[in-house]
Queue: 2 jobs
Job 1
Amino acid sequence: ARLVESGGGLVQPGGSLRLSCAASGFDFGRYATSWYRQVPGKERERVAAITSIGDSIDYADSVKGRFTISRDNYKNELYLSMNALKPEDTAVYYCFALVGSGIWGQGTPVTVSS
């Protein structure tokens, strides 16, 4: 079972990015998935979560109205669309699947800076 994130990078404040997470080695469509982020020296923070079929979604207060989580169970992919990015959104972003004790990707860095 594996998760691989992509799409991170450097963006100016107010800009947008779309992160992707490709899943393999397990039945992706059966499991809830989430995006987390982590800044060095701080705990990993859950940003957004989505159920296996996308019928329930939850966001951290800090990203509500700016970020959108979605998934494509045919492509085995999870997405995070990020708009109106702020410097405080700078972090390494990880996808997570609730398979057994949990599967993490390797992370993709996002830097919001002018």
Note: Residues 10 and 111 are 5 Å apart (CA to CA).
Job 2
Amino acid sequence: QVQLVESGGGVVQPGGSLRLSCAVSGLYVSRNAMSWYRQAPGNEREWVATIPRAALSTYAGFVKGRFTISRDNNKNTVYLQMNSLQFEDTAVYYCKALGWNSWGQGTQVTVSS
């Protein structure tokens, strides 16, 4: 059974930074492409970033160089470093493994002045 536990969200001012974590059990992050998604109130869930098993990570256009996805294979954890946060980044953030239909509970990110 695949379990994903997101953490690291919070309230931050515009221009601030947060680092999200996704602790994974039931599969190896080193052997799977891992992604972050987000869902803002009233909106559909949207893709943010993917780190493949090999090759370069990819990002949604709205990221514009502000976010970095990474993983720690020893901790079986995926991260999303978010810098220069904007009001529009307010959402619940989720991680997911490609090909697996499992979602965690998400972590709330709120950008507010």
Note: The chain has a mean pLDDT of 96.
